[in-house]
Amino acid sequence: MGTSNKSNRCMNLMPLIHSFSEMHLLQKCNRLRKRNDLLLFTAMLLPAAYLISIYLFDNSQINIFETLMTQSGNWALIFYILAYTISPFQRLIIAIAKSQKWLLGKRLTDWNFLLTHRRTLGLASFHLCAWHFLFYFYLELDFLLDELLYELTHRIAITAGMVAFIVIAILFFTSFKWAKRRLGRNWQRIHNTTHIIVLAAILHVVWMTKLLQWYHYIYIFSLLLLLIERIYQFSRGRNHRFFERQRRRRKYR
User: Fold this and answer.
1) CB atoms within 10 A of CB 76
2) Distance (Å, rounded) from C-alpha 105 to C-alpha 94?
3) d(Cα 238, Cα 190) in Å, to the nearest integer?
4) What pLDDT shows up at residue 1?
5) Each residue's pLDDT tens digit, 57-115
6) Closest Cα to residue 210, out of 66, 76, 93?
7) What is the distance between the terminal CA atoms of the chain, rounded to a whole angstrom?
8) Bigger pLDDT: 240 or 107?
9) CA 116 to chain centre
């Protein structure tokens, strides 16, 4: 009897132990998000340093322009995909928390540290997009505006890339707290244009690349999968709001 009572008490304590470990982990992640942001920012600088080292010191490259353009574009896409993954990952982890009946982790506010990481990853993507554009504008066009205008009007791939760069630049300059306060409700509308980047980036990659490599297919598949998830969430929320309005109308009749 004594052994069975002890085992029952241990079984009753297990949910409390799991809840305490979840709470400790979430609190630690939220507390250390500034340090983690610093680590992400450092990781963001490494590809840029690598690109500069190729341009200054690597004489073994046959076509240094193509290497710089390819590497900067790839890194910009990688960081953007990581930033674009944060919201679906947040929804997934909340669904797991609800299904597993965790004490914490069922609300968006429990995962606020992920949003700060999303902003840092978006900053990294814009940073490398800017390098990508500068390499093209300097090494290919020699900073000639008339050449740039000609490329934009005669090459659809360049137009798609420029659209993606302009949108991500707008998102970067409006991502600060003061911009969010000034824009108010319009802030969310502006940041919903991030989905334009997905379509523009896919078109830019497909039309600019003569022969698609295996990693290009990974980029395209990842972006399309994440965009489809966004469309599903939007339609689901819209249907929920529609049925909620219908229910309220029937209630007040």
Assistant:
1) 25
2) 6
3) 19
4) 47
5) 776 666 788 888 888 999 999 999 999 999 898 888 888 888 877 776 667 666 777 77
6) 66
7) 62
8) 107
9) 11
Contact between 104 and 79 (Cβ < 8 Å): no
Written as six digits, the tokens of 136 are 């093209």
DSSP 105-168: -SSGGGGHHHHHHHHHHHHHHHHHHHHHHHHIIIIITTT-HHHHHHHHHH-HHHHHHHHHHHHH
- Smallest Cα–Cα separation from 18: which of 105, 111, 94, 102? 102
Q: What sign does the CA torsion over 181, 184, 190, 191 have?
A: positive
Range from 14-18, 20-24, 213-217 carrying the lowest mean pLDDT: 14-18
Q: pLDDT tens digits, residue range 215-227?
A: 999 999 999 999 9
Handedness of CA 188, 193, 198, 204 (dihedral sign): negative
122: tokens are 């978006």
Distance CA 72, CA 131 (A): 7
pLDDT on residue 238: 63
Record the tokens describing residue 41, joined without a space.
């920012």
Nearest Cα residue to 174 out of 193, 192, 187: 187
Residue corresponding to tokens 């965790």: 102
Q: Which residues contact residue 21 at a Cβ distance below 8 angstroms, ignoring those fewer than 6 apart?
A: none
Query: In this predicted structure, what is the pLDDT of residue 171?
Result: 94
